[in-house]
Amino acid sequence: MISLQTINMSFLSQLLEHYHLNTKDLGARSAPGSFDNLKTPFELEDFKKVIERLKKAISTKEKTVIYGDYDVDGLTATSIMKLALDETGLNPGFFIPSRYVEGYGLNVERVRQFALKGYHLIITVDNGIAAVEAISEAKKLGMDVLVIDHHDVPATLPKFDCCFHQTYSHFLDYNCSAASLCFFVASFLLRRFDSYFATLAGIAVFSDVMPLVGNNLELAKMMKQFINKHHYRNLCYILGNGSISYDDINFTLIPSFNSVGRIMKDSASTNNACRLLLERSDEEKIKKYANLLISCNVERKEIVKNVTFLNQYTLSSDHGICLRTNDFSGLSGLFANKVMREKNVPVAIFSKDDINPEYLVGSLRAPEGYKVDEFLKKYQSMIVAGGGHERAAGLTIREKDYYLVCTMFISECSKQALEMEEKTEDVINITIEDLNEANYSIYESFMPFGEGFPAPSFKLTIEKERLKSTASHKCLMANSDDQQGQVVIFDHIDEILNSEKPIFDIYGNLTMEIFRNSKKIKFLSTKIM
């Protein structure tokens, strides 16, 4: 926690006003995460049914399989359940599908394979709440199905035997990750809160963009605490052994795990990504599995870096872009994010569904201020499946509806752009001399940032003569007088250098760079005016 006697009250006051907090609120937010602050589901009827069914499986050594998902929430949820049930002696199997072969969620063919292998109980994690056909097949084949899921509850529910879901089970009035639901199941079975399980659940808070409130906030904070305390070998092989920040989780660890499901088309690879989370001691296995993630992440970066979409736009306007690509469907979200950053407008990128050729799968990405999830809500009749949050979403549509969907997307973006023009941008004004360690420690006390509590946008006015081009000409920089702070501009370099304007308003975010024990507080530009 920070000391109010040693800080820049002006900088603190601006942040408190920005978030509509007082110092007491900040004290609670900056306090360490604690198991004591978690709301538990242990007395809920649905939760008790799940526990009873698992205890039955444990006592009879019932042949059990966990069916997860290829994203980070699915991988962490599967790992928590597998490790906890191993500890009880059940030793279940597990399966992580390939997005290119099985696609998302439990399917009929995989259920039949489970039956042939003699499984009696299927546990779905991060999927299952909408698997009507697959679960019906499982019941026909004499298997029980236990669902642990956090996705939207459909109008027609599958005939599962028991289910634990944050809203269906009357546990929470906000969304949470499947990993956090599994964390509570594991905690009750083992009669303890496990720091590694809490770490995995905390990672999933960020990977699945959960709102940073209640249990989500506590798990997020504990995740950072426990990684830095225990330095888990499997995670730190990717993160390194230094101090781990929230940015390290969001921009290094999570993309590394997600890259396997995006790049590799076989389920063996996605299952090996899960095995890295399961393995915490065998150095050779950790190295093998982690290197798979690292190589996939490098390939993912190269593909996204080199892809271009010149003249491929299906529809475009000043307020939105739609296009199709034949590249990896698993990378469409990253492609959309790249185009969005280049053009600063909402982007929709579609590609053929690898499972059903009559469908297209799409990714929506948008700059701050837009709400692509509103588009999904308004045009549900044209969308086969979809979900997401304000600035990022995924959807499946019928190929025959593609042009209509694109037209409606551009129209919705234009409407939102007009509404935003009427709003005053909520930014915090600072100077280059405010970029120092003392102010950054204040900024850190508001972390973690995420869904429902985004990082603030700062506005900084700077003289053109202070901006110097780097030797590689890849960016412009300016240092504060005390050399603690630095402004970095990556975009519109030629425009700035050739401009006759003496002063520029720069919008951006803060970060801290540590190099050879030297700290530099950096202001990374996102927009120039």
Automatic annotation (TrEMBL):
Residues 333-400 form the DHHA1 domain. The keyword Amino-acid biosynthesis does not apply. Residues 430-523 form the RecJ OB domain. Signal peptide: none annotated. Keywords: Exonuclease, Hydrolase, Nuclease. GO terms for molecular function: exonuclease activity; nucleic acid binding. PANTHER family: SINGLE-STRANDED-DNA-SPECIFIC EXONUCLEASE RECJ. This is Single-stranded-DNA-specific exonuclease RecJ. The lineage of its organism: Bacteria, Pseudomonadati, Spirochaetota, Spirochaetia, Spirochaetales.
